[in-house]
Amino acid sequence: MVSRxxxxxxxxLVAAATLLTAxxxxxxxxxxxxxxxxxxAPVPVLWLAPRVNAWTAAGMAFVAMALAGFDKWSYYGLxxxxxxxxxxxxxxxxxxxxxxxxxxxxxxxxxxxGLAVLAYPAVIVAAEYLVNLSQGTFGNTAYxxxxxxxxxxxxxxxxIWGISFVVxxxxxxxxxxxxLEGKPRRNVAIALACAAVAVLAYGxxxxxxxxxxxxxxxxxxxxxxxxxxxxxxxxxxxxxxxQGYADQVQELSARGAKIVVLPxxxxxxxxxxxxxxxxxxDTLFEQAARxxxxxxxxxxxxxxxxxxxxxxxxxxxxxxxxxxxxxxxLVPVAEGRTTPGTAIxxxxxxxxxIGVQICRDMDYPELARRYGKGDVGLVLVPAxxxxxxxxxxxxxxxxxxxxxxxxxxxxxxxxxxxASDDRGRILSEKLTLPETGFVTMLADVPVRHDATxxxxxxxxxxxxxxxxxxxxxxAWIAGVGRRDRKPFATPAAEEEMREHA
Length: 501
Description:
The chain folds into two domains: 8-209 and 456-500; 215-449, Carbon-nitrogen hydrolase (Nitrilase/N-carbamoyl-D-aminoacid amidohydrolase, 4-Layer Sandwich). The protein has helices spanning 8-28, 43-48, 54-68, 73-78, 83-109, 113-135, 149-152, 155-158, 160-179, 182-208, 235-254, 277-292, 365-373, 397-404, 453-457, 460-479, 491-500, and strands spanning 215-223, 259-261, 268-270, 295-304, 307-315, 321-326, 345-348, 353-356, 376-384, 407-413, 416-420, 426-431, 439-447. α3 runs antiparallel to α5 (83-109), α6 (113-135) packs antiparallel against α9 and α13 (365-373) runs parallel beside α14. The strands form two sheets. Strands 1, 2, 3, 4, 5, 6 and 13 form a seven-stranded mixed sheet that branches. The chain has 501 residues and is of the alpha/beta class.
């Protein structure tokens, strides 16, 4: 137990708690997240926070999360983010964590453990929701649980906000259990047990109760990014790559594929300098679709009339272009000169409604929710990963299927070819790294729309957290100026409180 505010032992404990939490967050939020680590990562800082002064507690939290934020520093360099933006990305979650720990500490020291364990997740969820309104959900706490299928099912009820909440609530309760004794500890233990049972029971039942799909469809994937085929921008390599993809379509359709999804931005097509290139590509794939009897979704960066669009062009077996979808949510800096689209593409099929999105569009719950409201049973997603994010970003799309009740197929350049169902289960997957020529895959994917509470009510749980945060702020302000009451039942803690008073 810490005995004096300036003791060497206190400094050692502060440093140890900070580094342990930093390491836990580093591996939890990293590009290759360890899903279970986030459940215990905050515990060292949360355990020590009530035992030190407010500035020290907030400082521990800020430094721990800031250190963890460097897990993606080199990755942000690959995205060509300017230095100020990289610093902002590191500092913002550090400030949020510091505030969450501050309020947790404050309420626990006032003998309000219930408010303490509520304040910590409420601050985190509220902040993540507000950031999402402008920047998307990349880095959200919920994405650490993509491999934790029972917890992942909460997305069907609450979206990602409920997952973030329970992931933050558990360590707050665990730390409170370490600091409390007697009836308060017993109450927190009962609440923790009830929350765990409720979450796991719902997740298990939701997984087991997956209804049979009224239809399935065989989807083909093809990808290459070898040498000049990474992103050709002149006619000769572009048409060579397009012919290669058309040949793969024929092979995949011969094996039963009814839809073939190709990657995002397979090539750059500029109408002004290459006026015949886009018509040649369209003719090639219209003929390929007619000959194969398969729909083909091709991603290109198309500059037409001086405006650049990141497009997904869907060719019909009838030999026509069925739809041209334009990406809504563009990558900052990297797609700074590209114009976002505004329309969605929902295509009625014999098997059910099918939708189209592109890569980063799947980072935004509201856009996917529009497809859920359209009773879409399958979403096709051309994508392009930036090297080391092929796992963390490549699997974020699984969450949208759980939230809005649809299956997904995602064909990513330099990443994964993935097929998943509406429970977030990966049905088939293949990694296209390292560069090995054409990589192909076939998957039988259910086409089924499953109505969810999140699809109907949207971000209701995030708003509930915002309301809870306002209530907590009111309760905290009402207590400002009061002398902290003893928060712990242990004699050592009481002695510490007297020394801090």
